């Protein structure tokens, strides 16, 4: 029995009174640090080339990131070269700070400073592992041994930095595997590092709390962060950062709650690329803020470019359901969703707060079009089908025809097994309703109103067949004409006429449903005027009964004048 939950132990909650974070609301964006070029890169099957790194770096700059971890130059020659390239070729914008990672070891720190020589500003990020499992099983060290590694790393960083006074240095320390570290010990190590760096004396310091492995629910991580913020010395002089991974699928939530718990800064990657299940996704967290009316201080309006560049550099495709960025995330296939979206969009006024069912943001904010919102498959209902016809062809259907036509669309989608594009849906509408069965094409009509109602004369077909009838209104007069001519009793169940907007060749659409001796038939017609559209729709609907009722088509073609 390998699938046995009893071998796992629940993560212990933080015994904490007076937690404040649950009542906090995020009102401003944290400082972002993109670690795609370091943590993200370390997780790739094929690490990025220098050219790919440059492309991703340029994108991060364009999006507005001011802090970018560009690599681990002491551990990787391409990372070293990329760092040198950025500095030597003056490719770092004045408002952007590069960050590099190093272990807390003298020779690696020395090489790190070599990589950074000549930089006008940089963050040196030093880390060592502090968790119980790493102490006991990986390093075979006690707390004191681990604390000494951190302190020695901090001292070496401080001393090297002093040798490069022209660079504006920020020091960053990460107790790696923080989530598996006893909180009192994490604080002890952080305090010891800060005692070396003395942020209270002007040295800029970032204390980064990594969920190297996500081990608990996000609320427990928030407790851990709040606990550290409450207990470390020099709190007001340091920037507290979080760096969450996504092992439980909650990296974004954990970072959000951590910001509520006091974190000033968040590290992550675009689209969440990173070790195992990934790093915290910067796109999702920033867009979450945006959707709450908070300026994310990043420009993510060109989502297609973001996914293109990330895909090209990581060689990882974007999941179609990826929040805010996936191909399908602004798409509704389900009928009731389509209906709701269509209604909300119709009422959505510019300048008003966004309030559209099923769409947390306006897709156009991230370069997506409304057109993509409603797509049709066998799950779609009348609303979606109607929306597509209206959106792409200016054809608005009455409700009864939406219901009727959507059943045909559903059948077709089931037959074809997938999605139906707008052309196919229009083609289906054309063949089922709009196409005029020859020779029932209206050639001309005359309507004369007098005190007894309307007399209609309708010419159809290539020849001069004229149908004539009298009724209270035009429709009734034509019905009488058809009924008398062909000896059937036609009844109009319902009909609707619409004036069409600009952009279509026709000016009017008519939709009609008739019955004749228990048989029902519907048709629609587009024409220059509403009377032509209605008469044609009526003729087409009757003609569609022809196969069943064996209407005398030939007789009509024969062109006998009946007037
Ligand atoms: O996940 C992690 O712990 C890291 C550290 C080096 C910050 O990437
Ligand atoms: Zn990491």
Explain what the structure shows.
The structure is a single chain. The protein has about 575 residues and is α/β, with parallel strands linked by helices. It folds into three domains: about 30-315, Aldolase class I (TIM Barrel); about 335-435, no CATH class; about 440-560, Alpha-isopropylmalate synthase LeuA, regulatory domain (Double Stranded RNA Binding Domain, 2-Layer Sandwich). It has 19 helices and 14 strands. The protein has helices spanning about 35-40, 50-65, 75-90, 105-115, 130-140, 145-160, 185-195, 220-230, 250-260, 280-290, 305-315, 335-345, 380-395, 400-415, 420-435, 475-485, 530-545, 545-550, 555; strands at about 30-35, 65-70, 95-105, 120-130, 170-175, 205-210, 240-245, 265-270, 440-450, 455-460, 465-470, 490-500, 510-515, 520-525. The strands form three sheets. Strands 1-8-7-6-5-4-3-2 form an eight-stranded parallel β-sheet. Strands 9-10-11 form a three-stranded antiparallel β-sheet. Strand 10 and strand 11 (about 465-470) form a beta hairpin. Helix 2 (about 50-65) runs antiparallel to helix 11 (about 305-315) and helix 12 packs across helix 13. The model is unreliable at about 550-563 (pLDDT under 50). The site of 3-methyl-2-oxobutanoic acid (KIV) has 10 residues, from strand 5 and strand 6.
């Amino acid at each position: 029995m390998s699938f046995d939950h009893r071998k796992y132990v629940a993560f212990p909650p933080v015994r904490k009174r007076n937690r404040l974070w649950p009542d906090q609301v995020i009102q401003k964006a944290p400082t972002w640090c993109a670690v795609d070029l370091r943590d993200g890169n370390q997780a790739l099957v094929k690490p990025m080339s220098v050219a790919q790194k440059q492309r991703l770096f340029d994108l991060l700059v364009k999006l507005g990131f001011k802090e970018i971890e560009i690599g681990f130059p002491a551990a990787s020659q391409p990372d070293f070269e990329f760092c040198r390239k950025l500095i030597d070729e003056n490719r770092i914008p004045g408002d952007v700070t590069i960050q590099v990672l190093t272990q807390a070891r003298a020779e690696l720190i020395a090489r790190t400073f070599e990589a950074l020589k000549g930089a006008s500003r940089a963050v040196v990020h030093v880390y060592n592992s502090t968790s119980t499992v790493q102490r006991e099983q990986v390093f075979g060290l006690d707390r004191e041994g681990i604390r000494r590694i951190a302190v020695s790393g901090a001292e070496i960083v401080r001393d090297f930095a002093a040798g490069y006074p022209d660079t504006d240095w920020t020091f960053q320390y990460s107790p790696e595997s923080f989530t598996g570290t006893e909180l009192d010990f994490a604080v002890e190590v952080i305090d010891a590092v800060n005692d070396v760096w003395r942020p209270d004396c002007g040295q800029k310091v970032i204390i980064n709390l990594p969920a190297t492995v996500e081990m608990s629910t996000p609320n427990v991580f928030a407790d851990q962060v709040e606990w550290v913020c409450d207990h470390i010395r020099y709190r007001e002089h340091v920037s507290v950062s979080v760096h969450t991974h996504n092992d439980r699928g909650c990296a974004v939530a954990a970072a959000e709650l951590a910001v509520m718990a006091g974190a000033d800064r968040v590290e992550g990657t675009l689209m969440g690329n990173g070790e195992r299940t990934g790093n915290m996704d910067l796109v999702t967290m920033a867009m979450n803020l945006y959707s709450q009316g908070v300026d994310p201080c990043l420009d993510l309006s060109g989502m297609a470019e973001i996914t293109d560049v990330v895909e090209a550099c990581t060689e990882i495709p974007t999941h179609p359901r990826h929040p805010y960025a996936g191909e399908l995330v602004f798409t509704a296939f389900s009928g009731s969703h389509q209906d709701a979206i269509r209604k909300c969009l119709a009422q959505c006024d510019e300048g008003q707060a966004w309030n559209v069912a099923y769409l947390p943001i306006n897709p156009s904010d991230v370069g997506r079009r409304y057109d993509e919102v409603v797509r049709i498959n066998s799950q779609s209902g009348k609303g979606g089908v109607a929306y597509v016809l209206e959106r792409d062809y200016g054809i608005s259907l009455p409700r009864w025809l939406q219901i009727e036509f959507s059943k045909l669309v559903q059948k077709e989608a089931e037959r074809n097994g997938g999605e139906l594009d707008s052309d196919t849906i229009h083609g289906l509408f054309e063949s089922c309703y709009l196409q005029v069965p020859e020779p029932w094409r209206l050639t001309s009509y005359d309507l004369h109103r007098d005190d007894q109602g309307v007399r209609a004369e309708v010419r159809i077909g290539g020849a001069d067949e004229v149908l004539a009838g009298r009724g209270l209104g035009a429709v009734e007069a034509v019905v009488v004409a058809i009924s008398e001519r062909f000896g059937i009793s036609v009844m109009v169940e319902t009909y609707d006429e619409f004036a069409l907007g600009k952009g279509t060749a026709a000016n009017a659409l008519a939709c009609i449903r008739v019955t004749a001796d228990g048989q029902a038939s519907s048709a629609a017609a587009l024409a220059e005027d509403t009377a032509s559209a209605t008469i044609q729709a009526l003729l087409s609907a009757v003609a569609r009964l022809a196969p069943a009722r064996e209407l005398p088509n030939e007789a009509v073609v024969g062109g006998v004048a009946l007037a």
